[in-house]
Write a structure and sequence with these properties.
Strand content: 25-35%
Helix content: 10-25%
Low-confidence stretches: 1-15
Shape: globular
Distance between the termini: 30 Å
Number of strands: 18
Length: 407
């Protein structure tokens, strides 16, 4: 998450020096000061900067997509027949969406500063599963994430909860693609590109909820000494049944306001008055109001993330995140930053070599789990991204589209 490297001004550079220098040895101090000297005068795309190993958190960015399925019960609940009206169904979608925010942006840094994840290599994969051991009705949820593009960096993911009656047919599918465009001039600007869709399939119908745009990001916590990523901005959720939700995540001001606030509304259709008003704290307690009666929507403290399982290292392929980055992860655990940096460089240099060979041999590369579909309809271009030259051979690079699950 390159926003971690974003520094609002030189005072933040000074803060990083004060908060990190005491814990570093002489070699790391030299690397750190060199990094900060570049950062203090840097303008442009922060993905071009290399982060020192001691600022890494030991997790691939692909693993962050697991938070779309932190609460499978809430995903399953979207299709609950108890939700009769379109607004009721949309309220269930909004509840699930809010539940993804805490894990995605806050859980890693409750008591420590955010650190930078590994930038996934092209073709890297992360998989996870969730089991319904409490007999809530959904049995199992599965996730697959793949780095489908390196330039621009884009990851695609798919969550599936199968149908009990027709095991081969997904009952609930969440899929999307996401990347970050981080530009640093006088202040940080992180735009999350892409979109997410929730598909509910029953014997009678199919409903599709589209989430776009994804929240923007900023860096917070400078005054408290604990840096963290804070989402902000407006997100819209629209359904094929005509209902819509408008959510605004509000970042705290420098001297005013509170952290993690949100507000919004839910309508039966675009022209109707709101049925529900959304409010509260996305990292704490959020609420909904109807007919002047306010009730709890989602409570982070009482609704913990559902435990997941990840394939054992012996069962993972070489391109799966935890196996791929294992040497670097082990070095970071031992605070052996020199070796961690060496292992990280080996992986990155190998990818540069592969990329060069593909270009020389005019070879194309295609993801295993997702395919690029060109957005030919103007209405489909919202959230669309371009392809990596390694997929298109440099041809039609101006085309934009979406990464859809294969099959």
């Amino acid at each position: 998450m390159d926003v971690y490297l974003s520094i609002v001004n030189k005072s933040l550079v000074n803060f990083l020096i004060i908060s990190n220098m005491d814990s570093l040895n002489a070699e790391n101090k030299s690397d750190f000061l060199s990094f900060l000297s570049q950062l203090a005068s840097f303008t442009g795309d922060l993905s071009q900067l290399t982060c020192p190993a001691f600022l890494l958190n030991g997790i691939s960015l692909l693993e962050y997509s697991q938070h779309w399925c932190d609460h499978p019960n809430l995903l399953y609940d979207i299709a609950n027949p108890i939700h009769v009206t379109r607004a009721d169904k949309m309220l269930a979608v909004v509840k699930w969406f809010i539940s993804t925010l805490y894990g995605g942006y806050r859980s890693r840094c409750e008591n420590q500063s955010e650190r930078k994840p590994f930038n996934p290599i092209l073709g890297e994969v992360f998989k996870a599963k969730w089991e319904d051991k409490d007999n809530n009705g959904w049995e199992e949820a599965s996730l697959v994430v793949e780095q489908v593009s390196h330039h621009p960096p884009i990851s695609a993911f798919k969550v599936q909860i199968p149908s009990k009656r027709i095991p081969s047919k997904p009952f609930i599918t969440v899929y999307g693609h996401n990347g970050q465009q981080t530009v640093f001039a006088s202040a940080v600007k992180v735009t999350q590109v892409g979109r997410v869709r929730v598909v509910i399939q029953t014997d009678e119908s199919e409903e599709i909820y589209t989430i776009y745009p994804l929240p923007e990001l900023t860096i917070s916590g400078l005054l408290t000494g604990c840096l963290f990523i804070e989402p902000f901005g407006k997100t819209r959720i629209v359904c094929t049944d005509g209902s819509e939700a408008n959510i605004e995540i509000i970042a705290k001001g420098w001297f005013t306001g509170e952290y993690f606030q949100l507000k919004g509304d839910i309508k039966e259709d675009a022209s109707s008055v709101p049925t529900y008003i959304i409010g509260g704290n996305w990292a704490g307690l959020s609420t909904y109001t109807k007919d002047k009666s306010t009730k709890n929507l989602f409570d982070v403290k009482s609704q913990h993330a559902h435990p997941k399982t990840i394939p054992d290292l012996s069962q993972q392929l070489d391109n799966e995140s935890q196996k791929l980055w294992r040497p670097c992860i082990e070095a970071l655990k031992k605070t052996d930053y020199a070796n961690a940096s060496l292992e990280k460089t080996k992986i990155e240099e190998a990818q540069r070599s592969i990329r060069k060979q593909r270009k020389e041999n005019k070879e194309t590369w295609n993801p295993v789990h997702f395919e690029f579909v060109v957005a030919s309809n103007p209405d489909e271009k919202s959230g669309a991204t371009s392809r990596d030259p390694q997929q298109s051979g440099g041809i039609n690079q101006d085309q934009v589209g979406h990464w859809l699950p294969r099959g």
